Amino acid sequence: QVQLVESGGGLVQAGDSLRLSCAASRRTFATGWFRQAPGKEREFVAVISWTGGRIDYADSVKGRFTISRDNAKNTVYLQMNSLKPEDTAVYYCAAGWAAGRESSDFGSWGQGTQVTVSS
Fold first, then answer.
1. Distance CA 85, CA 37 (A)
2. Distance between CA 116 and CA 105 in Å, rounded?
3. Any long-range contacts for 21-24 (C-beta under 8 Å, 24+ apart)?
4. Distance (Å, whole) CA 69 – CA 25
5. Residue 77, exposed/middle/buried by CB under 10 A (0-12, 13-18, 19+)?
6. Which residues pair with 14 in a beta bridge?
7. By C-alpha distance, which of 85, 94, 89 is closest to 118?
8. Which of 107, 112, 117, 119 matches a 20 to 30 Å C-alpha distance to 87?
9. Is 58 exposed, middle or buried (0-12, 13-18, 19+ CB in 10 A)?
10. Residue 107 CB neighbour total at 10 angstroms
11. pLDDT tens-digit profile of 4-43?
12. 49-107: per-residue pLDDT in tens?
């Protein structure tokens, strides 16, 4: 299994930006970001394929978040702009063989990084 380590979370104010990083121990075909807020189910945020040819976003973050990857570093990024209090959650990156939106598409998960957006 590939090892994934997220970083870049923190406490920011509404309207601010953050960039999350997901460093993998080896090459991954597809890498996704999910998030889970307290008392809520984990939800899909964004996904990118190895070549970057497939990128998908949840409607709630489209236009504000950008997913990208640096294959030379085996790292995927999530640039989050115009953050809202409802973006507060633990953000997880995940690696798998299918660049889908379902948790079941991914077999390896990171430990998560907390993002808190104050109003």
1. 11
2. 27
3. 21/75, 21/76, 21/77, 22/75, 22/76, 22/77, 22/78, 22/93, 22/110, 23/73, 23/74, 23/75, 24/74, 24/75, 24/76, 24/95
4. 14
5. buried
6. none
7. 85
8. 107
9. middle
10. 12
11. 999 999 999 999 999 999 999 999 899 999 999 999 999 9
12. 999 899 999 999 999 999 999 999 999 999 999 999 999 999 999 999 889 999 999 99
**Band of residue 1 on the pLDDT scale cut at 50, 70, 90:** confident
What whole-number distance in Å separates Cα of residue 66 and Cα of residue 58?
A: 11
Which residue type sits at 2? V
- The Cα diameter of the chain in Å comes to 39
> What's the full length of the chain, in residues?
119
Q: Please, how many CA atoms are within 13 Å of residue 44, restricted to the half-sphere of its CB? A: 20
Nearest Cα to Cα of residue 29 among 74, 83, 64: 74
Residue 53, both tokens? 């040819």
Type of residue numbered 67: I
Locate 111 and state its tokens. 């430990």
Tokens standing for residue 104: 């079941």
